[in-house]
Structure formats: C-alpha cells, structure tokens
Amino acid sequence: MQHFTNTRTPDACDEIWLLEHPPVFTLGLNGKPEHILTTGDIPVVKCDRGGQVTYHGPGQLIIYLLLDLRRRNLGVKTLVRKIEQAIIDLLQDNGIHGQRREGAPGIYVNDEKIAALGLRIRRGCCYHGLSLNVNMDLEPFSRINPCGYAGLKTVQLHDLRPDTNVDYIGDALLHQLTRQLAVG
Prior knowledge:
Elements: H1 2-7, E1 15-19, E2 24-27, E3 44-46, E4 53-56, E5 60-68, H2 69-72, H3 76-93, E6 107-109, E7 112-122, E8 125-133, H4 157-160, H5 166-181
Parallel strand pairs: 2-3
Antiparallel strand pairs: 1-5, 2-4, 5-8, 6-7, 7-8
C-alpha cells in the first residue's frame, strides 16, 4: 500500500484490495500500547494508519482503499461517511440495522462494533481501509481495548446471519463501496 501510494502517478488507476489477514493486532500511528491487554501468541504490528489498536484474523473481511482523493474531489470526512454508508447499506440488505457512533468511526449493531475504519492520507491519496467481522474467532478482541475503548464488545455477521461468508460479503460490500465512491 505504501509503495503503491508513494509511487503512483496522477493518472494511476485507483485500486481496492479485498483480503483476510492471519491473526495480528495492529496499532495505529497514535495507538497507545496500554490498550493492548495481553497478546498471547498473536503478534503486534505498528502501522501508519489512524486509530488505536484492533485485531485482524481469518474470517474478517479487510478492504484496502487506494484512492486519489484529489481526483475524486473527496475530503476525509466525506470519504469516511461514504465508507460507513456502504457498510450500513450492506447490513441493511442483509436485514441488519447498522449505525454510526459520533466520534467513534466504524459501524455498530446493538452497541457492538461490527466494522472498523483506519485510514492514512498521503499526497492527497488514501490507503488502509476497513475491516468487517464476518465469521471469525472474536476472542482476541477481549485481549485489547478495541479502537481504544475499554469493554467495547464486538459482533460478527455470522452471529446475526449464519448463512454469510467472507466471499459473498466481500462481493456485496465491494458493490456498495463502488456505488458510494462512484468507482468505475
């Protein structure tokens, strides 16, 4: 992501990457180590995105957005709103009511976090992106204060809609994101 962003030219196409990570805790630029309670055998990686600490693992959809915000005439707040709206629309399509929380980027279902956002803007372009809990082991979230909030509970789509899987949700969320961002 960094290399792509650092070397992209003004006419480079934007990219959206969908993937899953092996188990890892990531600590954002301003992340406070005290939000990591215990790691066990899961590594901690410092990264250059915004936000505090989060967990990534198999069964969680990660979408990295490598976008030229200047070309799209998008500010950071608008970008965050559009990403959040894409997730809310995806959840709504699956009969789930997702909502924003003022001052806490991401999406929540019944006060439990289902999706997190962490972005980095450099040279008018963004990278990093979002994570959506689909069908994963949520236990590692209990080893941290997710996104810097002690006691924040997490939830996953599988608990609300057992017939979902990462591939289906990835395709559906990509559709919502491209609609929100008007990606060709």
